[in-house]
Protein 1
Amino acid sequence: AEFNLLALLLQNAGEVVSREVLAEKGLGRALQAYDRRIETHMVQIRKKLGSQPDGSPRIKTVRGAGYQYVLSQ
């Protein structure tokens, strides 16, 4: 599941990917009310990837929209 979610973020690097899209394409099921699976997986992915060389996060949470893999500048 983590690999699928990360692959989706990388395919759309620099763009916000909604939680609904991540659930459907990354986990293979529709997002349900109070579903925290995406957040749980994102915590694990962030731990494994670490931060950018400058200390900024690789994956940004965009409140109310989804997640974004941040391109380094």
Note: Helices lie at 2-11, 19-27, 37-49.
Protein 2
Amino acid sequence: MDVGFIGLGDQGGPMADAVLAGGHQLHVWARRPEVLRTYVERGAVAYSTPAALAAAVDHLGLCVVGENDVRELLLERGVFAAMKPGSIVAIHTTMGPGACRALADQA
């Protein structure tokens, strides 16, 4: 399975590590390109935009700071528009269920 991950900090980084350890192809994007180096060295594929990453994966994990960052990625940076039909977005961010339902409706 091709798994994408955005948000490679203290919480998301170990999640992305688990994807690699599980034998899945990991695809990554980060606001700070230097964060990507350790993942690329271990076999991950890095992308220059979140939308390009989204177009390449079956499952996308988001572990960013909050609802505004999630909305920016999914809507403004084109992640929803780029994803293949049937792809999954897993939001690992603190946000309310109403906001998640609203995003699901927009997906």
Note: The beta strands are 2-6, 25-29, 45-46, 59-62, 88-91.
Protein 3
Amino acid sequence: MVEIEAKLKVDSLEPITQKLKQIGAIFCGSVFQTDHYFDDTSGSLTKSDRAMRLRCETREAVVKNILAYKGPREAGEFKRRQEIQFGVDTTEQAIAFLAALGFEKSLIVRKRRKVWHIEGCEVALDDLADLGTFVEIEGASEEKIIGVQSRLGLAHLPHIKECYATLMRRHDETK
């Protein structure tokens, strides 16, 4: 599967929430996500713009674990990359599996996310303690994403192509 998304930095999520309600978006819920990123000892995944992520997602006291591989980003205005993901039973099993393959935890990213759906797109309102607030619009095509971005009044904002892991690494380097 290929993931296509626009990531936008915003000052506040409240006006976006109000706009989503106004245009008839469907609220799907709030989640807390802890993303554990893994790499080998030489950092080969990070160096080649790939990622191995274990996401622990808590929604209404239910925890879901998702292991994902993300391929290198493709050229273009939007963040587009191969994504392969599947559920795993427990965090501990996934970490043990990755360790057996030579991967170790390299970074943790925590975020609060509110998920909405509109016009075939998922709109995620993300709040990351160290990085601020972001809107991610994911859809089947760039045209659908552009349409939703425009309807939200965010057409003027530049797309951020880096993933949260890259932004967090950069933030940690400047401390």
Note: The CA atoms of residues 8 and 154 lie 8 Å apart.
